[in-house]
Amino acid sequence: MSERKPYKSDLSDEQWALVEPVITAWKAAHPSVSGHQGRYEMREIVNALLYQGRTGCQWDLLPHDLPPRGAVMYYFTNWRDDGTDQTVHDLLRRQVREMSRRKADPSLVVIDAQSVHAAAGVPAESTGRDAAKRVPGRKRGLAVDVLGLVIAVMVLAASVHDNTAGIALLDKVAADTDTVEKALVDQGFKNAVVAHGVQVGIEAEIAERNPAQRGFVPILKRWVVERAYRILMLHRRLVPDYEHLPRSSESRVYWAMAAVIPRRLTGATAAAWRST
Fold first, then answer.
1. How many angstroms separate the Cα of 8 from the Cα of each of 29, 40, 62, 268, 276?
2. Using one digit for the tens of pLDDT, what is the confidence trace for 36-48?
3. What is the pLDDT of residues 84-99, one digit of tens each?
4. Among candidate residues 23, 14, 21, the one with its CA nearest the CA of residue 44
5. What number of CA atoms fall less than 13 Å from residue 197's CA on the CB side?
6. Closest to 118 in 3D by CA, of 268, 237, 252
7. Read out DSSP for 189-235?
8. Distance between CA 18 and CA 239 in Å, rounded?
9. Which of 87, 89, 105, 239 is buried deepest, with most CB atoms within 10 A?
10. Which of 169, 165, 114, 167 is nearest to 137 (CA)?
11. pLDDT digits over 116-139, tens only?
């Protein structure tokens, strides 16, 4: 790594060692036509992505001591398009589960959807207005395990009904894992999601709130997905949706979790919101 003052979002040596094998293998499989190895270290490219995710800065405002916009965007888009972002994330996620003495992939997921504002300049054709929550922007759907680790993410227009988001999430969970047997879903999801779960081999159960309870009462097991959303909100690139493509928004979720999980694996303390 080039000599510079570190940022709090940087990966430590121990944390980089968890990510490096995937990135190095990708680099080896994608040699330059000229045989040039590139001017920038892969670790610095990843650090730049994590810095941008944490601070929410624009591409043109990346610090001068990190690789420039063109280089970082090149790797971001390539890793987004070929799924390397999810590969890095899933490798880390499985290590956390195994460290917790669980199988690499879960048998149960918790599904929910969150509507977030879209920033100015985000294409109108990929956004909409959530009539119920009065939010113009996009709908971010998550499927998480009982530890709150992301199993699947889908980003759609906020105008899309929760059922559509739930069905898309079930499809992605079924496509990415063959271990999930059950999904707990919010009351906002309807019978269409339950019926679709049967088609993909996942039992979808609507977790209903006890009507006798008053005030805020966490629903057993479902609170982990709410915690996952709160963790993502520490990454300012995700607070409003800045990305032109929904797939880029999904990639930002994977990179946000790729910043969080290595800290769990190495016992490091996460930087607080007010300190960054």
1. 31, 20, 15, 11, 7
2. 667 899 999 999 9
3. 999 999 999 999 999 9
4. 23
5. 24
6. 237
7. S-HHHHHHHHHHT-EEEE----TT--S--PPTTTHHHHHHHHHHTTS
8. 27
9. 89
10. 114
11. 999 999 999 999 999 888 999 999
- Cα separation, 161 vs 258, whole angstroms: 29
Please choose, from the candidates 29, 237, 38, 273, the residue with its C-alpha nearest in 3D space to the C-alpha of residue 119. Answer: 237
Q: Which helix (H) or strand (E) holds 141?
A: strand 135-144
> Per residue in 164-221, pLDDT tens?
999 999 999 999 999 999 999 987 787 899 999 999 999 999 876 655 555 544 555 7
The greatest distance separating any two alpha carbons of the chain, rounded to the nearest whole angstrom, comes to 69
Which residue from 121, 170, 118 is spatially nearest to 141, judged by alpha carbons? 170
CA 135-136-140 angle, to 5 degrees, is 75
Backbone angles phi, psi at 228, to 5 degrees: -60, -40
Looking at the whole model, is its pTM more than 0.85?
A: yes
The DSSP letter of residue 185 is E
46: closest CA among 10, 86, 3, 83?
10
**CATH architecture designation of domain 104-243:** 2-Layer Sandwich (3.30)
Tokens of 252: 């930002």
CA separation for the pair 250, 264 (Å, rounded)? 22
The one-letter amino acid at 205: E
The rounded percent of the chain whose pLDDT value lies above 70 is 90
Q: Which pLDDT value is given to residue 112?
A: 94
